[in-house]
TrEMBL record:
Lineage, broadest ranks: Bacteria, Pseudomonadati, Pseudomonadota, Gammaproteobacteria, Vibrionales
Domain VWFA: 99-304
Keyword list, A-Z: Membrane, Transmembrane, Transmembrane helix
Organism the protein comes from: Aliivibrio finisterrensis
Protein name: VWA domain-containing protein
PANTHER family assigned: SPORE GERMINATION PROTEIN, VWFA DOMAIN-CONTAINING PROTEIN
């Protein structure tokens, strides 16, 4: 309803609404002096004209329509002073304060079925799943806690590629994550190249600042850049060494959290180089985690969530449109019409008198 959308910016002006009545009751009316002719037979003339003698001044008495215009004009003037405002539909302004790039290893070792699912079978037992499937389950829960963050997804193996550019649409991000499969980027682990690509995507995103306009003020804050790298093997032939990539990330303001998935005692290409993983995290200002099972993997993402709390802010407001000029327009129109009608009436009366 319109009445629910109406508010008055200066409601205290309503107090002057009865002011004309106060003036009418307590202040004498203005009287105009008129000239008179003195005659010795005044009483005879008064009786002949059937007039009652009064004081030597006269008071102008407005007609009914003049009183109506005066009252209506005063009410409209007070209404304009209160500045009536129409409220628009509620709108929500959101501030997105962090970019999070999730980097997932798709090398052949991610097919190892040494993790268990969070769901249980009919027998009450947990089913063995691959490392990649476990990562998908945990990431699905992790994403739900990142309201307001823009998420990206990079997959790597023999090469690294962007699966999802930065987006605030969590549903789309999860769908693209679930479409991934082991070895779709190759069998090896080019960890350094994946970190380098993440830095490049941050640079190309072009959103280094977040501008929020509230109450006619603009608050500009640098957008935080965070990369979460999940890997289960050591680097195997990247063009850019992971340590060098971490140094560049630190210079560019990109914080990297490393999650080592699997048994660090494994040997061969699947071995985890924890020294490199720890150095990459430390150089970039992040943290390193080890996850030998699904619970530890989930705990690692929980810890990252605590280290990178949400910067999301939501403000609901209603746009306002002042309509105080409409009462003023009505007053002007009324007086123009009244003046025009009186002028026309006098014109016709003058014409009849000439005849």
């Amino acid at each position: 309803m319109l009445i629910d959308q109406l508010e008055f910016a200066n409601p205290y002006w309503w107090w002057i609404l009865p002011l004309p009545m106060v003036i009418y009751w307590f202040i004498p009316a203005y009287r105009t002096r008129q000239s008179a002719i003195k005659v010795p037979f005044f009483d005879v003339v008064a009786k002949a004209l059937d007039e009652t003698p009064s004081d030597g001044a006269s008071q102008l008495t407005p007609s009914v329509w003049q009183k109506a215009i005066l009252i209506l004009s005063w009410g409209l003037l007070v209404l304009a002073l209160t500045k009536p405002t129409i409220l628009g539909e509620p709108q929500t302004r959101e501030q997105l304060g962090r970019d999070v790039m999730v980097v997932v290893d798709l090398s052949g070792s991610m097919a190892e079925r040494d993790f268990v699912s969070s769901t249980r079978t009919d027998n009450g037992e947990r089913q063995s799943i691959s490392r990649l499937d476990a990562a998908k389950e945990v990431l699905s829960d992790f994403v739900k806690t990142r309201k307001g963050d823009r998420l990206g997804l990079i997959l790597f193996g023999d090469a690294a590629f962007v699966q999802t550019p930065f987006t605030a649409d969590q549903k789309v991000w999860l769908e693209l994550l679930n479409q991934t499969d082991v070895a779709m980027a190759g069998q090896s682990t080019h960890l350094g190249d994946a970190i380098g690509l993440a830095i490049k995507v941050f640079e190309q995103s072009g959103d280094d600042e977040t501008a929020v306009k509230l109450d006619n003020t603009i608050d500009i804050k640098p957008r935080e850049k965070v990369a979460i790298v999940l890997t289960d093997g050591n680097d195997t032939g990247s063009y850019v060494e992971p340590i060098d990539a971490a140094k560049v990330a630190a210079a560019k303001g990109v914080r990297i959290h490393m999650i080592a998935m699997g048994d660090p005692k494994t040997v061969g290409e699947q071995a985890l180089d924890m020294e490199v993983i720890n150095r990459v995290a430390k150089l970039s200002g992040g943290n390193a985690f080890e996850a030998m099972n699904r619970d530890e993997l989930s705990l690692a993402y929980d810890e990252i969530g605590k280290l990178e709390p949400q910067l999301y802010e939501s403000t609901t407001y209603r746009p306002k449109q002042s309509i105080h000029y409409y009462p003023v327009m009505l007053i002007v129109i009324m007086y123009l019409l009244a003046f025009s009608l009186v002028t026309v009436k006098r014109y016709f009366k003058a014409g009849e008198a000439d005849v």
